[in-house]
Amino acid sequence: MTEFAFDFRRHATTVTVVPVLVLVGAAILLVAGSLYWGMRETDRLALYRQRETIGNAIHQYGQSLARELKPNTVWDEGYQKAKDGDLKWLDEYYGPYLDNLLGYKRAYVLDSAGSSIYSYATGGGGRTSDYSAVKDQLTDLVEAIRTGTGPAAGSLIETPFDLGEGQKIVHRAISDIRMLEGIPSMVVISTIDPDVPQPDPILEVPFLLVAVMELDQSFLADLGKTFGFAKLQWEAVKDDPTLSTRAMVSLDGRDIGTLGWSKRQPGQDMIVNMAPGLSAALGVLLLLAAYLIRRGRIEAALIAAKSHELQVLNQELEKRVEQRTVQLMLTMRELERQNTSLATQAGDLAKAKASAEAANQVKSDFLSTMSHEIRTPMNGVMGLLGLLLESDLDPEQRAFATTARESAEGLLTVLNDILDYSKLEVGKVELEKIGFNPGHLAHSVVHLLRPRACAKGLQLHFDIMPGVPRYVMGDPTRLRQILFNLVGNSIKFTHKGTVGITVGSRENDGRLWLEFSVKDTGIGISRQQQAKLFKRFVQADSSTTRRYGGTGLGLAISKQLVDIMGGEIGVESEPRQGSRFWFTVPCTVAEQGDEDVVGPVQDEVCVSRKLRILVAEDSHVNQLFIKALLERDGHTVDVVGNGAEAVLSVQRFDYDVVLMDLQMPEMDGATATTLIRNLHGPLARIPIIALTANAMSGQREEHLRQGMDDYITKPVKAPVLMAAIARVVGPAAEKDGKESPGQDGGGLSSAADAKEGHEGMSTTLEAEPFEACSVAAVDGEAGAVPAPVTAPCNGAVAQPPSGEPVLIDDQAIDGLRDMLSEDKLRHILGRVPPEAGAQLNAIKTAIAGGDLDTARRAAHKLKGMAGNIGARRLADAARRVELEFRDADTMSVHLAPLEKALEDTAAELRRLA
Q1: How many CA atoms are closer than 13 Å to the CA of 755, on its beta-carbon side?
Q2: Is the pLDDT of residue 417 over 80?
Q3: Angstrom distance (rounded) from CA 294 to CA 14
Q4: What is the percent of the chain with per-residue pLDDT over 90, rounded to a whole number?
Q5: Which residue among 52, 694, 699, 839 has the highest number of C-beta atoms inside a 10 angstrom radius?
Q6: What is the crossing angle of helices 620-632 and 852-868, to 10°?
């Protein structure tokens, strides 16, 4: 009985194992077959897509070249010169221009009879016998563009023009690849047409411009890089198993040659990538089968227990199979997505072609002129510069990289103009309606464009006329864009003199109209040229465009924005008499808006040359801040940390001006100034400007008597700093020993001079929109302390309604963003907490040692550093420590608010940085 039971269990196990083995084998065969079939289909479809991509890419490239050639053939001067047979003009403008700027190696001009009147070839301009060698290969294209018939007629690009006065033309262009003199080439043929009405009837059979671009290996390398085709080449070896090939045929059915590229087999690559996983799965299955056979010989009593283990193993196997299945499905979906994307791209190309042919003249001109300039370079330039700036660079390398990125951002201005114009064309611009201060808007434009004006030696200012409401409702962003375009144009076309903005208002028909005017002393515009302004891609004339550059979109965008707002824009100008651009927009009075501007900002004197400046300042944050301000205007800046280093640097290097902090370790600014004034020759007369956070009355006169040439207080404001530098250096001072205004070796020599200099400084400060603060005027001789007087000062602490200073002044941070790059601003803000903490520790250490003077000096430095970055609460707490410390017993009273202000400020600065 036992023997019988044992045989039964053995045979039962065998019956169970055999189907499992059969199913496993079948599954392996099914999966292998499916993967093989999928691999073959994927590779076949990929090859088809590659061939289609190559063909479409070359065809679309030819179409874009045909459109790009239009501005050179729809041109009244080109039409007349071709008609008159002016070979000198054709050789000067057509041949070299097409060669040097557009890359065409050959060009021909054909007359109405189809004969070549002008030929150009690289290195041999003016040859007239070359066209006969290629005439037969181009006959069908010439016939198609002139009669609209033939096999190539379906590829014609036709653009109708209404020249006015009843004259109409249809501009035609065509492109195709041809084998010319044994070289595969892209041929572009375009009719030469006028763009203005003609006194004589327009030629019924137009002249033609034939341009030939060789599709050499350099072209194929660029094309392959763009579309991801490695080793793209002509005349590929067809039996080379590592290459994919495609035969290229012209419109008339001629064989141009065969293109080859490195074969891409995504299906095979997928199988190779999956091979380790599949091998592992197969190994698991084989091990499982062996395990089942072995376990089938064990006693039947163990079958139940081992069945449980088998179930566990089966579940694990199912999970693995499920995971592999999910991976396979994801891979297939990605392939489907890529296939769909390729199909979508092909469809988009077809739709774009149809849309371009049916679009109006505005969009056609825009796309043909601008698209090539903005699409190719931007991604690579901005991306690589961003990665470069994130790497470890020395200061000089970082300066070079930052300059390169700023240049790339200038290119973004062109891109922004194009995007704005595109949005305007399709009606997607939406206007805001918020409250704003017109004066603040004009001030922001002046502030941003002042460095550009100063670089040309121009004075830039603005005035607000009486009666302009403080706040109005409108779109300040778009108004600033219009004003920025107009002022930028005036600066570009003005070589000397001034550019001024006037903001006014008037009421008409019960509506309030805001009026902006930009007047300059530039080159002016004739009445004939004024008729071309405010049109797309247009400056005054072609020579102006070549000299000054630009896309010609700024005024067109400005006019369309003004039209959308329901306003008007215009110009008044005479040649060599300057210009006045104006625009008006309707608005309503608002109850509140952005920050006020206190009165008109006075003209700032610009320094017409780049200076070498020495900054003596022991605070690292203040060093970074002042250095960034000066380098923004193109000056070269050296930084030292104390007065002794400043004296040595003045003796070693040739500086135009020195900015001297008064309180520094080792040697203070006053001592350093005295030593510099005792040097020999021109070194003793170098202009020195004092920097201090002390705004007390009488300090300026004291420092001028010590040999300083001027005096400004912290926090440092860019306009005040630049005005002070301009006063002591002069707008056009030369470095030949010529003394600066107000300088006589040892500074201002009399009390009257000192008083006059102080009054001039007050005028400059009052021109700035600073807060008022109370300053106690100290009489140094009598020791009397009069009642506090209210006067504008740099060190004012902005107060919220509750009376406590704000933590961070948003206006100050916004001002820093206008003056500095975002990287520099984040770097400066990140340096404030550790340096402020160091000054706080210095205060505590000095108090513990009974050295209250050192504690006050550290508080003084902390106050100036905090003021520079708008940390009002921290600056106020440091000021109280500096002025109100009397003994160590008051430490807890004043240090606790200072520590709390520093903690809160550090947290907020970390958020901003």
Answers
A1: 3
A2: no
A3: 10
A4: 12
A5: 839
A6: 30
- State the Cα–Cα distance between residues 747 and 688, nearest whole angstrom: 9
- Please give the model's pTM, rounded to 2 decimal places: 0.36
Gap between the Cα atoms of 176 and 250, Å rounded? 6
Written as one letter, the residue type at 168 is: K
Q: What is the reported pLDDT for 586?
A: 93
- DSSP of 145-188, one letter per residue? HHHS-SGGGGG-EEEEEEEETTEEEEEEEEEEEEEETTEEEEEE
Q: Distance between CA atoms of 775 and 794, rounded to whole angstroms?
A: 11
In angstroms, the first-to-last Cα distance of the chain is 88
614: alpha, beta or left? (left if phi > 0; alpha if psi -120 to 50): beta
The widest CA-to-CA distance across the chain, in whole angstroms, is: 134
Q: Which residue in the block uniquely carries the two structure tokens 């778009």?
A: 478
* Whole-number Å distance between alpha carbons of 61 and 59: 5
Q: Which element (helix H / strand E) includes 110? A: strand 106-110
Measured from the Cβ of residue 6, the count of other Cβ atoms closer than 10 Å reads: 12
| CA 173 – CA 394 distance, rounded (Å) | 53
CA pair distance 162, 140, nearest whole angstrom: 28
Distance CA 277, CA 271 (A): 10
Q: Is 229 helix (H, G, I), strand (E, B) or coil?
A: coil
**Angle at which helices 718-729 and 620-632 cross, to 10°:** 70
- Round to whole Å and give the CA distance between 481 and 475: 10
The CB-based long-range contact list for 259-263 (8 Å cut-off, 24+ gap) reads 259/54, 259/220, 259/232, 259/233, 259/234, 260/231, 260/232, 260/233, 260/234, 260/235, 260/236, 261/50, 261/54, 261/224, 261/229, 261/230, 261/231, 261/232, 261/233, 261/236, 262/229, 262/230, 262/231, 263/47
Between the alpha carbon of residue 427 and those of residues 370, 420, 479, the distances in Å are 20, 10, 18
Which pLDDT score is estimated for 5?
45
Q: Which of the four pLDDT bands, split at 50, 70 and 90, describes residue 188?
A: very high
Query: Is the preceding peptide bond at 476 cis, omega within 30 degrees of 0?
Result: no
Distance, in Å, from the CA atom of 358 to the CA atom of 377, rounded to the nearest integer, reads: 29
User: CA–CA separation, 690 vs 887, rounded Å?
Assistant: 30
For residues 697 and 871, give the distance between their C-alpha atoms in angstroms, rounded to a whole number. Answer: 24
Please state which of the ranges 30-34, 533-537, 619-623, 869-873 shows the lowest mean pLDDT: 533-537
C-alpha–C-alpha distance, residues 212 and 110, integer Å: 14
- 273 vs 469, residue with greater confidence: 469
* Residue 636, amino acid: T
* Strand pairing class (167-180; 183-192): antiparallel
Q: What is the pLDDT of residue 859?
A: 84
Q: What is the pLDDT of residues 338-349, one digit of tens each?
A: 888 888 888 888
CA distances from 421 to 9, 363, 455, 556 (A): 85, 10, 29, 8
User: What's the CA gap between 323 and 339, in Å, rounded?
Assistant: 24
In degrees, to the nearest 5, what angle opens at C-alpha 389 toward C-alphas 383 and 390? 90
**How many whole angstroms separate alpha carbon 862 and alpha carbon 869?**
11
What residues are paired with 168 via a beta bridge? 162
The Cα–Cα gap between 594 and 438 comes to: 9
Q: 634, 406 in Cβ contact below 8 A?
A: no
Gap between the Cα atoms of 637 and 643, Å rounded: 16
Angle at alpha carbon of residue 662, lines to 656 and 663, rounded to 5°: 135
- 772's CB contacts (< 8 A; 6+ apart) are 790, 791, 792, 793, 796
Structure tokens at 536: 């797309």
pLDDT at 97 over 70: yes
- What confidence score (pLDDT) does residue 377 get? 58
